[in-house]
Amino acid sequence: MSRSAALALLVATAVALPSVSSAQSVLPDDFELDKPAPKPKPEPKPERDAEPEAKPKPRKSKSTADEPRSEEPVQTRKKVQTRPKIKNRRLSSGLGFTLTLGGLATLRRMEFAGTDHRIAHQPGLYLGGVIGAVQQLWMLKKSKSHVLLEAEGGFGSAKNGSVEPALGRALTTEHAYLLVLGVFEKPIHPTVDLRLGLGLSALSYTVESNPEYTGHRYLSLAASFGAAYWMSTKTKIGANIVFLPGLSTNQSAGGYGSARSFGGRFEPYISWRFLQPEPPDRFGSAEFGVRYSYARFQTSMPETQALGDLARTSDAAHTLTLGVSYNL
After folding, report:
1. Considering only CA atoms, which of 90, 85, 113 is closest in space to residue 251?
2. Checking DSSP bridges between strand 169-189 and strand 192-207, what pairing results, if any?
3. pLDDT, tens digit, for every residue of 285-294?
C-alpha cells in the first residue's frame, strides 16, 4: 500500500469514530429517561385502594343483619305497652282527691255463750250505703310512692229474724262503721303495688231495746297490709288484711260487764277504670269497684254481771260493697 493510501484510511477512520461515539452518547441519554418508567411498581396502591371498595359489602351484610334486630325491640316494646305504667296508676288533676259512693249488703251472725246462757243474733241482710274519700298528702317522685289519708263510712239496717215476745214483733237492728287510715302506697314492680296503713276503726251493731241483747260496739286500732296487681292500665285486683286489736268494747250497753276484743278483716277486691280522658290529668278519671269483706271479732268478758262467770262472743260478718269512684 502506498503511503498516501494509508493516510487516507487513517483520516476516514478518525472521521467515522466520533460519529459512532456521538450516536452512542445520545442513545444512552434517551434510554436513561425511559428507565424511570418501571416506577409503576408502586402501582399496587390501586390494589390497596381496591380494599375499601370491597368494604361496602360487609356493610351491606351488617345492615341486612341489623334489620331483624331492629324489629325485635319493636316487638318487645309492643308487649310492654300492654302493661300499665307506674305514672298512670293514680290519676289526678293536682287535687289528688278521690270520692267513692256505693251500696253495701251485710250478713251477720253473733253468738254469745256463757256457762248456762246463750244468745244468738242473726238478722236478715243489712242493706245500706257507703261513702269514702281519699286525699293524697305527699307524693315521693323518686320512689313514685304516695302518702294518703283514707276515710270510709257505711250504714245499713235490717229486721231481726225472730219475733221478740215482749214486743210482739221483729226487732229493728242497725249497722254502722267508720275507718280512718294513713296509708303509704309504693309500687314495687310495673304491675304490683304495696300498701301499709295505720289508723282507727269504729264498728257498731245496735238492736232495738229488749231485755236480752242490744248490740255491740267496737273501737279498735287498725293496722292494714295490702297488695294490688294491675292486669292492665284500667283493671286491677287486690286484697287487704286489717288487724283490729280492741281499744274499747261495749256489749249490750255494759249489761254483761267489761269486755276485751280482738278482730280482723280480709278484703279482696277488683276495680275497673271506665273513664280515662286524654291527657289523663285533665278531667280526672272514674272507676267501678267490687269488694268482698269478711270480718270477725272474738270478745271475752271475764266478770259478767248477769252470768257470774266467763262468757265469750263470736261475731262474724260478710259484706259485699259496690261503688263508683271519681278521681279529681
Report:
1. 113
2. antiparallel
3. 899 999 999 9
